[in-house]
């Protein structure tokens, strides 16, 4: 079935540095969603992208969906300690259950 | 509005024992999902209910897992008998029903299951 590969698996940055995580699929995706899971917490929905080339911003977070709808990225500008956590990309299957298929996640740690 | 709740938050059981996890979705959400995350790997889908009906249980690992959703409200996931590889965090999520194509899923805090 369809899968998404997410890189890197881990990223450690100094506070104030930028951070990017990438999500790739070998097939065209109808949508991409991003979730954040704080340490010890649960996944929290951040955003959903559905259009080719779509770019959305939430304060210091920028989300992109590739023109071919096979890749996506999440970029955080000037990280803060509150950004610590694991970021997951996922897509929702259109047919049937609309279940989420997750990438492996990128764990972000920050040196204050 | 109360979020998705799960009980217990943690469970430690011995191999061969039985454990039942419970999920209370957000009131009015027809869709209820179970997911599992094992040891830092990706979060994997287990099954999906629409109201009281199982729509998709393709992610259930084997017949040791049994899920129910009585009356279309809360759901339980029973593991019997538990094996070591069942350890992980079990998340429940819910979303609205209706004609809209995609709905945000709201996750519960999870149940951390440890089988020793």
Brief write-up:
The complex is a heterodimer of chains A (112) and B (116). Chain A is mostly beta strands. Chain A is built from no helices and eleven strands.
Description of the structure:
- The complex is a heterodimer of chains A (112) and B (116).
- In chain A, the strands form two sheets. In chain A, strands 2, 4, 5, 9, 10 and 11 form a six-stranded mixed sheet that branches. In chain A, strands 1-3-8-7-6 form a five-stranded antiparallel sheet, with no helix packed on it.
- Chain A is mostly beta strands and 112 residues long.
- Chain A starts with a strand and ends with a strand.
- Chain A has a single domain (5-111), classed as Immunoglobulins (Immunoglobulin-like, Sandwich).
- The model of chain A has no long low-confidence stretch (mean pLDDT 94).
- Chain A is globular, with a radius of gyration of 14 Å.
- Chain A contains no helices and eleven strands.
- By secondary structure, chain B is mainly β.
- Chain B has a single domain (5-115), classed as Immunoglobulin-like (Sandwich).
- Helices cover 0% and strands 48% of the residues of chain B.
- Chain B contains no helices and eleven strands.
- In chain B, the strands form two sheets. In chain B, strands 2, 4, 5, 6, 9, 10 and 11 form a seven-stranded mixed sheet that branches.
- Chain B is globular, with a radius of gyration of 14 Å.
- The mean pLDDT of chain B is 92.
- The chains are: A mainly beta (112), B mainly beta (116).
């Amino acid at each position: 079935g369809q899968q998404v590969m997410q890189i890197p698996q881990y990223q450690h940055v100094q506070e104030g540095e930028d951070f990017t995580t990438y999500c790739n699929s070998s097939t065209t995706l109808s949508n991409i969603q991003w979730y954040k899971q704080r340490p010890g917490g649960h996944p929290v929905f951040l955003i959903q992208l559905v259009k080719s080339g779509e770019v959305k911003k939430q304060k210091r977070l920028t989300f992109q969906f590739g023109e071919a709808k096979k890749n996506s990225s999440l970029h955080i500008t000037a990280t803060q300690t509150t950004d610590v956590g694991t970021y997951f990309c996922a897509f929702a299957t259109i047919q049937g259950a609309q279940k989420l298929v997750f990438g492996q996640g990128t764990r972000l740690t920050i040196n204050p | 509005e109360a979020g998705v709740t799960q009980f217990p938050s943690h469970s430690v059981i011995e191999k061969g024992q039985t454990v039942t996890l419970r999920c209370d979705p957000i009131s009015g959400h027809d869709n209820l999902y179970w997911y599992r995350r094992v040891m830092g790997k990706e979060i994997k889908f287990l099954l999906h209910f629409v109201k009281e009906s199982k729509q998709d249980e393709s992610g259930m690992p084997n017949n040791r897992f049994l899920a129910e959703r009585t009356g279309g409200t809360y759901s339980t996931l029973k593991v019997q008998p538990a094996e070591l590889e069942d350890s992980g965090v079990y998340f429940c999520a819910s979303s609205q029903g209706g004609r809209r194509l995609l709905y945000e899923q709201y996750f519960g805090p999870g149940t951390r299951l440890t089988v020793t």
